[in-house]
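lol ok so funny story. i was supposed to be doing the assay writeup but got distracted and ended up predicting the structure for this chain instead. priorities right. anyway since i did it might as well share w the group, maybe its usefull for someone
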Amino acid sequence: VSLDAKKKLYRVEGLGGSYCFGHDSPVTKYTLNNLNVAFSRTQISLREWEPSNDNTDANKTEWYRLAGRDAPGSPLRAEFEMMRELTQRKIPFIASIWYLPSWLCIEAKETKMQVAPEKWPEFLECLGSYLRYAKEKYGAEPDYFSFNEPESGIHVLLAAEEFPLLVKRCGALFEKMKLKTKLLLGDVATARNRIDYLHPTLMDVEAMKHIGAVSFHSWNGAKPEQYAEWAALSRALKLPLFVAEAGPEPNWLLKPWLHPGAHAIEAAHYQELFLHAQPQVVLYWEFSENFPLLLRDAKDRSRLLLTPRFALQKQFCNFILPGSEALLTDSDNASILLTAFRYKPRNEREHLTLQLSNSKWTRRVTVEGIPGGVKEFNAVHTTGSELFKTLERVPVEDGRATVELPTESITTLTTMEIPELMAP
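and the output, tada:
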């Protein structure tokens, strides 16, 4: 495998994960405190905020009715507190809608909900009051807003022709409220064959003024050329590309996090995103207790157990920092993927991090093209049985380093210091 340190591909804004559900889980607190969460995502629960219409006047809000639902111990309180915590930690975040109160919809159902045409003013009042309350009461203001997977109706359905109308309505609302919040273009369920959904919005100049980033979810993966379409669109628009939900298998009923080799599958999935989609932001689904990175002890449910998937996220989040530049890499083996990132903090020396994923058996790999200033790497790897294990330093000679990659592993070579892995 090789890298070309002279060829920068894109700049990373931040890796992280979603905190949309399960805010009260100890998994949530542990990941916040033990991963370098540089970007995140939360839920906007409008059906908890306004389960029934406060009044029939979209220009008048009965605050006492809405604020009263922010009760101690309620999911809504936990949601607001999560937004506040992310803000206090200076973690930028997306706020997304999954469900709507039934009174706003054409018909009451759990999926493919549609806003009744005559209720759009009421929807904007509902959303605006939620965001105003979050800002004034909790000091929290989302950087970005979206409907989750609107082309699929998970759980609000928007036709492609409706999407620019949504953007213009919400964008005007945010401007009127003096919010910094921009909208995501897309936030679709997959990178495969969904760019056509964006075309009506791309053709609407007024709508595009309110777009802050392009977004897709990476469920079930995609072909390199399909990922590359998103990278090309992002570059053409001069807007960052977000993978707002990263994960290979969306069916939670299958419990993919328990499958043998799940960490290796997720490692290769991330590497393919970095190589072909070239995103500025990648958010794992989720850093709370949904597709959990930590498991419960069977004998003591209060005790959390680390998993290889958590260690994998630590290797990505702690060494691919905001401001990192992705470099051109190449591999002569489809099962061995290399990504490389250069990071230069202000007034400090430059760092180089290489991520090597091996989805099959153990083999030795030589990395070529390492810059002359790098004489050795610190090293850490994760396998099915070894989590974030610090290895002996790897020497570099004539721009080459050789390392053994264990079966189904992710190995990080970095000039950064390696932190300790803290047990829950």
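The mean pLDDT is 96. The radius of gyration is 22 Å.
back to the writeup now i swear
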